[in-house]
Amino acid sequence: DDADDRMCDLVCDRYPVLLVMSRFGIALGFGDKTIGEVCRDSGVDTGTFLTVVNTHIDGEAPDPGAVSVGALVGYLRNSHDYFLDFRLPGIRRKLIEAIDCSRNDVAFAILRYYEERKVFPYVEALLAGERPEGYSIDVFRRHHDQVEAKLAELKRIIIRYYPSGSTNELNGVLFDIFTCERDLASHNDIEDRLFIPAIKRLEEAGETPADVRSGDGARKRSSGAKGGVR
C-alpha cells in the first residue's frame, strides 16, 4: 500500500486493517482522504502505519529502518490495552456464561504482558538517550509469547475434555479464542520482525538513530514517501 492510496479503499479491501487503525488512534469518517492525509490529520507517522499494515495484513517483509520507534511503541501499547481491557475480558465473560465455573479456572485471561512492565520503559529510556542496566531486548524475546500459549492451552482443554450441553455458547467462545489467538500471533509477529530489530538497532548504536527516532523529522520523512515501505 502507498501513502497516496485512499484510506477508504484500504479498509474496504482489507477489513482487518480496522484493528491496526484503532491501535494507532485513527478514527473513521475520513471521507476520500489518502492514507498519508489521514495519518497526518491523526498525528500518526505514515511510514510506521504503512509498515505495520504491509507486515500485519499483507505479510510483506518489514523494514525496521522505515519506522518511528516512538510511534511503534504507541501502537503496541494500544494493542496491549485492546487485549487486556477488551478482548480477553470479553472472552472471560462469555466463558463464565458457557461453563460451570466451579469446575474450571478462567483466571487465565487477565494476565499482564511481560513487555508492559519491562520492555516499554526500557525502550523509552533508550529513546531518551539512556542505557538501562540489566535488561535487553533479547530478554523480551524469550518471554513475549506467554498469553498466546495460555490461550492455546485453554482451547485444547475445552476441545478435548469439556462436555457441554450448551453447544452454541461454548463453540462461540472457542471461535473467539481461535480468532484472538490468531490476532495475538500477528501481534507477536510484528514484535518479532519489526519491533525487536528496531530496538536492537537502538541498542547497537548507543544513541538514537535518526531513521528510527520518533519526532518531527521521522514524521516528515515517512509522510512524504511514496511506496517506501512496500
End-to-end separation in angstroms reads: 7 Å
How much of the sequence lies in strands comes to under 5%
Overall pLDDT: 76
The beta-strand count equals 0
Describe the overall structure.
With 230 residues, this protein is mainly alpha-helical. It is built from eleven helices and no strands. The chain has helices at 7-13, 17-24, 35-42, 46-56, 69-98, 114-117, 119-127, 137-141, 146-161, 167-205, 216-223. Helix 5 (69-98) packs antiparallel against helix 10. The chain starts with 6 loop residues before the first helix and ends in a 7-residue tail after the last helix. The model is unreliable at 102-113 and 208-230 (pLDDT under 50).
Give the structure's gist in a few sentences.
With 230 residues, this protein is an all-alpha fold. It is built from 11 helices and no strands.
